[in-house]
Amino acid sequence: MKKLILKRLLQLIPMLIGMSFVSFIIIQSSPGDYFAQMKMNPEISPETIEMMRTSFGLDRPLFVQYFFWLKNICKMDFGISFAYHIPVTTLIKFRLKNTLCLAIFSLFLSWVIAIPLAVLAGYKEGTLIDKIFSLFAYLSISLPSFFVALLFVYFISKTGVLPLGGTRSIFDIDANAFLIFKDYMRHLLVPGLVLCFVNIGWLFRLMKNNFIEVYNTPYILAAWARGLPASSVIFKHTLRNALNPMFTILGMEIGSILNGAALTEIICGWPGMGSLILEAVLSHDLYLVMGSLVISGFLLIIGNLIGDILIALFDPRIRLT
């Protein structure tokens, strides 16, 4: 296991370098940049704009810019944001915390809901319960995330049962930590429920199919024949083996939720990495875009590594060498 983790972490380096290089070339090849937009302001002289370009190192050749940026990355220096005039690391820290909280909350909620429903539907295959749950899963899969987000935002705006946008409401000065946390979770509910609804459908279908496949195997029939209690057959033998393929997709789901959260964050007004990347791309904020892409790629690879570790821990048939 230690060799696997070390090997995957070493593979992380060339993957991030390749991803960052391709992204850097594409961004720099696009027409215009942040300082080109400043030329439209008559109050800013061309000399001032050129001086700013020089201070950010944009007067150098393209490959020289990239290698200087890469050298600074090794020192955990992502550069200075053109638009915000503060270190990119400072911006990413705040937004990344919100995105991770949203991803963990929606991931946990979707698994807690989808797995029990799938087990019940698989055990009651062909009954009315199975048909109702399957219909709900089809709706979850069919509706795109942006449409679900718009429906939630419209409903919340009409009812006012939950706050929309941001992470905090206006507090008195003496608000304690519990009230702040409670208010944060209330703001988190809207985007979290949107992502949860979108992910439940395919999790339900995959888990249900796994459960039915394992439940119909000969060794489950043999467990019934030996007179084992129903709880042991369903949870110890069937559910445990049906969960093994789910752990392989857990890492990919972490990455997909982080990527899929971007559009939901923008529509629901959640200040996470999605809205930050959108603002950076629209303003041609080079270093902010590059820093956000590197962090997103790193989380995606780490998510896949977590999935590999989990399946190795829960499936004794797998031997990693």
Tell me about this structure:
With 321 residues, the protein is mainly α. The chain starts with a helix and ends in a 7-residue tail after the last helix. Helix 7 (145-159) crosses helix 8, helix 10 packs parallel to helix 11 (273-282) and helix 11 (273-282) packs antiparallel against helix 12. It has twelve helices and no strands. It has one domain (88-314): MetI-like (MetI-like fold). The chain has helices at 2-29, 34-38, 46-55, 62-74, 88-123, 128-142, 145-159, 177-215, 218-225, 230-268, 273-282, 286-314.
Describe the secondary structure blueprint for this structure.
Layout: H1 2-29, H2 34-38, H3 46-55, H4 62-74, H5 88-123, H6 128-142, H7 145-159, H8 177-215, H9 218-225, H10 230-268, H11 273-282, H12 286-314
Helix pairs in contact: 1-12, 5-6, 5-8, 5-10, 5-12, 6-8, 7-8, 7-10, 8-10, 10-11, 10-12, 11-12
Key features of this structure:
321 residues; 77% helix
* SSE class: mainly alpha
Low-confidence stretches: none
Written as H for each helix and E for each strand, in order along the chain, the element string is HHHHHHHHHHHH
The average pLDDT value, as a whole number, equals 81
Distance between the termini: 8 Å
Principal-axis shape equals globular
Per DSSP, what share of the residues sits in E-state strands of 2 or more residues?
Answer: under 5%
Number of helical elements: 12
CATH topology category name: MetI-like fold
> Largest sheet, if any?
none
